[in-house]
Each structure stands twice: as structure tokens, then as C-alpha cells.
Amino acid sequence: MAVQKIIITPILVFLVTIFFNVSSSSSSNNSQYQFLNHGVRSAYWPAGDDFSPSLIDTNYFTHIFLAFIQPEPISFKLEITKSGKKWGQNFIKALSHRSPPVKTLLSIGGGGSNSTLFSEIASTKQNREIFINSTIDVARKYRFDGVDLDWEFPETQQDMFNLGLLYEEWYNALFAEAKVRRKPRLLLTSAVYYNSTVRLIGKHGPRSYPAQAINKYLDWASPMCFDYHGTWDNNTGFNAALYDSKSEISTNFGLHSWIKSGVRPEKLVMGLALYGRAWELKNPNVNGVGAEAVGPATDTDGSMNYNDILKFNQQSGANVVYDKVAVSFYSYAGTTWIGYDDGPSIKTKVRFAKSLGLKGYFFWALGKDKDWTISKQGTSHYSLFNFEFLFLIPNINLFLFFLKYDAL
Q1: Which of 145, 203, 266, 274 has the fewest CB atoms within 10 Å, i.e. the most exposed one?
Q2: What residues are labeled active site?
Q3: How confident is the model over 88-125, as pLDDT tens digits?
Q4: What b/e string do you get for 355-374 counting C-beta neighbours within 10 Å, with b at 16 or more?
Q5: CA 186/CA 105 separation, integer angstroms
Q6: pTM of the predicted protein model
Q7: Options 3.90.1570.30, 3.20.20.80, 3.30.450.90, 3.40.50.720; which CATH number does 10-273+342-407 get?
Q8: Average per-residue pLDDT in the chain?
């Protein structure tokens, strides 16, 4: 079949616009539309990191989170320290006039925060109101586009119920504030456990997130699909396995649990890691997945940024292995073993998220990549002009007819 040269003309642009608008509204159940028209490609920037927010390449992202700010334990209001104020101002200044533009969100909590404090905040209407009003005040003052809650993790089912109330009252307050000020409503998002039910952490047994509250009140929830294995284990394992036939600790299992719980796929943004986990092997000759280890291979918790992993692999001449089942990489040299993601595994995971109809993905965290090697994988895979979009458009024959006519 001969390939005709297609010239971009106003007619063609108009037709593409019309057909994309039709396709985006024709079926809310079509999972592929989410990425084409409303995809979230986001990342967290750790406040105070050596990686300046001015260096963020916004070609690869739609939303950037500043992480983290904490509530004050007595007043329940957000605590703005002198350094926090500086980071916030520099963050907004660096990203407010970028091309392409990005939305900015203020993230509250994080892995090192006080879970008991969030439990207390969520426990009464008065506490929730104080906290909510403070988040709105701070977000507006520093010109953020939204707020994000990272409560790691609610300890009881009562905490989960109260979290649902917090989402509801927070959304209602954001809606009312935007109406009064005649401004766009602040976005409301929340980082959550990889699974819809928290089972492996805490002393009070399994507890499930409020699925219906997430559907109704959040713009999206962000399952943290990483930290599955680390040096707290005595054996090597993958930080973010897509599949694991031997356990429920995998992204595939976790995301399907969210969908089965009733959360709509378009309310979910999958977490991806820009770091790996490194162990010291007990026996360097036993170096596969699950090999016995004696502790972390680094001087901290065994975590290793992607850019440092590449340096280690090159300098040590490490053996690099791709695990097709887990959709993850590992490398080993001497007594060091590292499980991590690289470009091909990230591309496959983003494709997996797309197949489920998820709203998008996020990375933890900026400053850990190498020349945007991983960050750009999802962006390039979901380019607006990827030709697979043609198969999503209703009346495709009519579209191709006009396309051919316009090219004559």
C-alpha cells in the first residue's frame, strides 16, 4: 500500500479536535481515554533536596508535588517553618511560568510523619475543620493548585472511617471556598497504601480504605506501588514487582484490589519508584532473587537512587538481569545485590496502568533519575500523536476518509 504525504492543514486540525472531543465523551467506560485526554504524569519533589525545582523538565510531567509539610501537634494547623517557607516560595517561583505548564500541589505528611497525629486530626469534626481551613489558607497563600494527604498509615478501621469523613469535609470546604473567591477549586489528592486493605503494617489487623469517599471526593488517590521488599527482609527481592506468583505483594494484585473495592480506575494514579533496594549477600555465589542477605549494602536503609545504581553497575562491572515475570531488574557484583526499575520495566508498567484505565502515574522522587531516562518513558509512550489513538475514535472510517481528502 502506498503511503501518501499528509499535510497538516486547518481542516485536518479541526477534524482531529472534533474526533478527540467525541471520543473523550462517548464512553466513560473506555479505559484508554483517560491517558489520551486526562492523563496525570506526576512526581514528588522532596523539599530541601539538592535537586533544584528550577531544573525540573516539565515536558515529562503534568503535576508536581512539594513534599512534605506537617501539621502542628497542638493546634492541628500546618506548621510553616522558616525553611519550609523558603522551599515553598522557591518551588512556586521555579514552576509558575514554565512551558509546558504544570500544576503544583502541597503534600502533607509523608513516611516520616506522625500517624497518631493524623488519627487525632481526623477523629472529630472540629479537629478536621481546623486542619482543613489551614491547608486551604496555606495553599492559597503560596499559590499552589492543590493539596495532597500522605497519611502512612491509618491504624484502625475507625481511622479509615474518619479518613472518609475528612475527604468529604475537605472537598466540601474546597468547593465552597472556590465559589466564594471565584477561583478554580484546589485539587484534592491522597497517597495511599499499594493495596486497598492495609494488612502488613500495624498492630490492629486489616483495615480497608473508604472506597466510596475516594470516588466522590478525591480528584485521585495514589497507591504507592513500591517498597514491597527491602533490607527489613532477610532475602533479596524486588522493590516494585509488577507480578509475584508467590504472594500478594505486587502492583498487579494491589491495583486490582483497589478496583475490586469499588474505586473507579480513573480515580487511581499508580506509584513508580526512581530508586531501588540494595542488600549485602551472605554468599556472593548465591545471587538470585530470594538469596539470603545479611543487611543493607549501603550505609543507610539500603535504598539507592537510580542514578547511583547506574554508576555502581558501570564501575563494578555488575551483572544485570531482567526478570520478565516481576517486570523488574536486578544487578549484582561481589556481595552487593540491587533490585530496581529501568526504562523498559517502567514502560511496561505504564502500559499496564493504561490497560487498566488508570488516570496516570507518579514518581517518587525527583532528583533520583539520570537525565530523565525513566521519567520520559511514560510521556513518550503516551504521546498524543501515537497512532494507536486512531483505534479509539468512533466512526474511524469517516475520519480516515476526511484525512485522505485533506491530504490531496
Answers
A1: 203
A2: 152
A3: 999 999 999 999 999 999 999 999 999 999 999 999 99
A4: ebbbbbbbbbbbbbbbeeeb
A5: 9
A6: 0.86
A7: 3.20.20.80
A8: 87
All structural domains of the chain with their residue ranges: 10-273+342-407
Q: 251-260 and 343-356 are packed helices; what angle lies between their axes, rounded to 10 degrees?
A: 20
Instruction: Kindly give the pairing relationship between strand 40-46 and strand 146-150.
Output: unpaired
**Buried (b) or exposed (e) across 121-134, using 16+ Cβ within 10 A?**
bbeeeebbeebbeb
305 vs 367: CA distance, rounded Å: 9
Interatomic CA distance for residues 218 and 40, integer angstroms: 14
Separation between Cα atoms, residue 158 and residue 180, nearest integer Å: 33
Q: Which of 41-45, 238-242, 258-262, 301-305 has the lowest mean pLDDT?
A: 301-305
Pairing of strands 319-323, 360-364: unpaired
Residue 141 grid cell: 497563600
Q: What percent of the chain has pLDDT over 90?
A: 80
Q: Which residues pair with 107 in a beta bridge?
A: 67, 148
Please say whether the beta carbons of 351 and 31 come within 8 A: no
Which one-letter amino acid corresponds to residue 96?
S
* Residues 189/64, Cβ–Cβ less than 8 Å: no
Compute the distance between CA of residue 142 and CA of residue 14 in angstroms, rounded to an integer: 38
Give the total residue count for the chain.
408
Pick the closest to residue 254 from 191, 198, 216 (CA basis): 198
360: left (phi over 0), alpha (psi -120 to 50) or beta: left
Tell me the three-class secondary structure of 50-76, residue by residue: CCCHHHCCHHHCCEEEEEEECECCCCC
Place of cell 502492583: 251
Can you read off the three cell numbers belonging to residue 284? 556472593
